[in-house]
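Milestone 3.1: sequence recovery, worked example.
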């Protein structure tokens, strides 16, 4: 809790990081969904649109917090000292995860407000709880990818790689445009991506539109891959800097 509290305060002290985390998904909602009356005034379509942009907000928060954020922390003189404390990596990593998930929830607030004011999107109590429950699930998968990037690269390189990975995955995964309007080849290919699996599962929970059959195995498989990459990156960084 102490690590999570201080990491939250560190983020708050950089206003542009807070604004970027909260603003981009909300702007995408306001400019690309709200003007399309056929979508905004259809409860199912509007809810699905909010869900996929909410998925993007969670993934983006994780990628920047754990990818760029970890790389920036590694460049600070205080980081080697903290990593040599007797408490070990567990509490610090748990605090980082807690901080990241808090920002994932905060990133959804302006998005949900715009949806409530300007669209017909609606959720039952069960759908709301299901959607909230999917936030840490999606966050866990992509924070692992963020950690793999953050512990492998310098701060400048990590920011570029996060952007180069995040936006193609988001477009191809249907987080900006529903995969139903993709060309047939892209619709099929996108089913192998973690973003498409996450998007479809969140949309299923919140709007009842069924996900494709392999969404859960695909997301679990990518989680295992990202976990292996994160562990390898951390051990390599630890061995290079402390042995």
């Amino acid at each position: 809790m102490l690590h999570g509290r201080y990491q939250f305060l560190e983020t708050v002290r950089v206003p542009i990081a807070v604004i970027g985390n909260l603003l981009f998904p909300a702007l995408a909602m306001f400019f690309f969904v709200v003007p399309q009356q056929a979508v905004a005034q259809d409860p199912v379509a509007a809810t699905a649109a909010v869900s996929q942009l909410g998925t993007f907000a969670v993934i983006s928060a994780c990628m920047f917090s754990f990818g760029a954020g970890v790389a920036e922390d590694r460049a600070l003189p205080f980081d080697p000292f903290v990593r040599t404390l007797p408490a070990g990596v567990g509490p610090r990593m748990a605090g980082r995860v807690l901080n990241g998930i808090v920002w994932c929830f905060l990133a959804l607030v302006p998005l949900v407000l715009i949806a409530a004011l300007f669209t017909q999107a609606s959720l039952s109590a069960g759908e709301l709880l299901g959607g909230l429950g999917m936030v840490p699930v999606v966050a866990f998968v992509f924070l692992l990818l963020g950690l793999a990037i953050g512990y492998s690269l310098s701060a400048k390189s990590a920011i570029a790689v996060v952007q180069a990975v995040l936006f193609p995955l988001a477009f191809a995964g249907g987080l900006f445009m529903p995969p139903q309007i993709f060309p047939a080849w892209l619709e099929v290919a996108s089913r192998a991506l973690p973003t498409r699996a996450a998007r479809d599962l969140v949309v299923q929970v919140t709007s009842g539109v069924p996900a494709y059959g392999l969404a859960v195995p695909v997301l679990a498989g990518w989680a295992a891959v990202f976990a292996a990459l994160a562990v390898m990156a951390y051990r390599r960084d630890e061995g290079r800097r402390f042995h």
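The longest helix spans residues 43-74. The two ends are 29 Å apart (CA to CA).
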